Amino acid sequence: MVKIGDEAIVEIIASAGSAKSAAFAAIEEAEQGNMEDAHNLLEQARKELVAGHQAHTNVLIKSVKEEDVQVTFLMVHASNHLSNAELSIDFAEKLLTLYEKVNHV
Questions:
Q1: Residue 104 DSSP one-character state
Q2: How far apart are CA 46 and CA 38, in angstroms?
Q3: Helix (H) or strand (E) holding 2
Q4: Once rounded to an integer, what is the mean pLDDT over residues 86-99?
Q5: Alpha-carbon span 18 to 77, nearest angstrom
Q6: Using an 8 Å Cβ cutoff, are 56 and 12 in contact?
């Protein structure tokens, strides 16, 4: 049984965490009326999410190439973080749109 390297999995978690943090920071900036900063943070969140997806894809490719891969708690944890980051960005995008409409920006 092959175990995927923890370093690759931690990379997914780190990228997802950075993406989620940037998305929430974007919401906070929007609340303060700093829409340019909010959009910049949202773009940063998207870039981090892409990095997380790339790391995730690399893990998936490696798992497909191996015949018997051990699925670990850390792998599942990383996938959950990535999904949560993606959802956070989706919500942040909607909230920024609402703040712009309410503030007539």
A1: T
A2: 12
A3: strand 2-3
A4: 97
A5: 15
A6: yes
Active site residue 77: yes
User: What stretches of the chain show up as alpha helix (H) in DSSP?
Assistant: 6-31, 35-65, 73-102
**What is the 8-class DSSP label of residue 58?**
H
pTM of the predicted model as reported, rounded to 2 decimal places: 0.89
What does the alpha-carbon distance between residue 43 and residue 35 come to, in Å, rounded to a whole number? 12
Is the distance from CB of 34 to CB of 103 less than 8 angstroms? Answer: no
Q: Count CA within 13 A, CB hemisphere, residue 9.
A: 15
For residue 2, which phi and psi values (nearest 5 degrees)? -95, 135
Residue tagged 């490719």 (tokens) = 61
Q: Which of 39, 53, 77, 104 is catalytic?
A: 77
**Res 36: pLDDT:** 97
The three-state secondary structure class of 66 is: coil
